[in-house]
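Ticket #4471: structure export looks truncated?
Reporter: QA, pipeline team
Priority: medium

Steps to reproduce: submit the single chain below to the structure queue and open the exported record.
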Amino acid sequence: MPDLHLKTLKCVTQEDLTFDDDVILKVNGDNVLFTSMDDGESYKVDQYISFTSKAVVKLYEADYNPGDDDDFLGAHTVRSGSGTLHFTRDGANYQLSYAVS
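Actual output as written to the record:
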């Protein structure tokens, strides 16, 4: 069974123009990380997640207003390899480094 190593999440450009982004990182539907980030900040995730055939990595920015869903910043399917995933929807720019072993 492969392991997905989530290394570092970097916020190049945040989605929220007023406050820090409250980012939610999910892998295969499970919450892996919830943290606040601002432009230029990095967060060392350093988590290993086992998966069977693929890992679907999604990033959101939490919204707390009733009727306003969380902002979807992007998704990637990972099966092998290593590199950087880019999440650039809704005006944001996040980079997540990873490796599969």
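Status: closed, not a bug. The export was complete when the record was re-opened. Leaving a note from the reviewer for reference: The chain has a mean pLDDT of 95.
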